[in-house]
Amino acid sequence: MEDIKKIILGTGSYSTVKSGNTVSITGDGGNAWGYFGPSYKALAPKLVTYLPYAEKYELLKELEETIRDYLIHNKNVDEKYVKEYQKFRKEIEDEYIRSFYEIRLKDLDVYELLYKLEKRFGHDIILLCHETIEEFCHRRLVADYIELKTGIYIPEVEVDEKGFVKKRNPIRYKNRLIDTINKV
Fold first, then answer.
1. What's residue 1's pLDDT?
2. Mean pLDDT, consecutive 10-residue segments, the chain of 184 residues?
3. The pLDDT of residue 2
4. Residue 131 belongs to what domain range?
5. Could you give the number of structural domains in the chain?
6. DSSP conformational letter for 34
7. How far is CA 88 from each of CA 41, 55, 57, 73, 135, rounded to the nearest angstrom?
8. Which end of the chain is more exposed for a tag (fewer CB within 10 A), N or C?
């Protein structure tokens, strides 16, 4: 590995990365979102992590809808709904982070992972998943974990059809990963 900083260009979603050296890290390889390129499923969440989160995420969306309804009809939101939403969101995300860490990241040799990715896919890889930049996503857990272990920051990117790369400011989970690591 000549320069490990060149292996991963960034992370992105299927909807915002239109070209480049893309690699899906979802369980179905991105097929459900119309992506049929290369995939690396060893970084995908296992169902034991994903299913409980998906079920609770539906309840979270209901709370979000309640807040939205308040905004439409009342122009203000009862603070209890906002606090309930924030608390529940953090709770289910922390549960996901703990499970994903224990199952996928805890025993992961990041340097070996980078070597495997480079050997299989080359340089300037963009790790893909389906969530938008505003949503909780395991691709950012992977990116932040790599940063924790190597010091290499992996940005969130958007890439247009002509290959123009725009770096975005993603939600960061580094501190929550550190908390999880210290608890496990």
1. 47
2. 84 97 96 96 91 86 80 72 86 95 96 97 97 93 97 96 95 95 90
3. 53
4. 4-183
5. 1
6. T
7. 29, 13, 9, 24, 14
8. C
Q: Radius of gyration over alpha carbons of the chain, in Å? A: 17
Contacts of 52-55 with CB under 8 Å at 24 or more apart are 52/95, 52/99, 53/92, 53/95, 53/96
CA-based nearest residue to 35, from 118, 158, 129: 129
* Residue 166 CB coordination number (10 Å): 13
- List residues bridging with 167 in a β-sheet: 157
Map residue 177 onto helix, strand or coil.
Answer: helix
For residue 58, what is the enclosing H or E element?
A: helix 47-74
CA-CA distance, 109 to 115, in Å (whole number)? 10
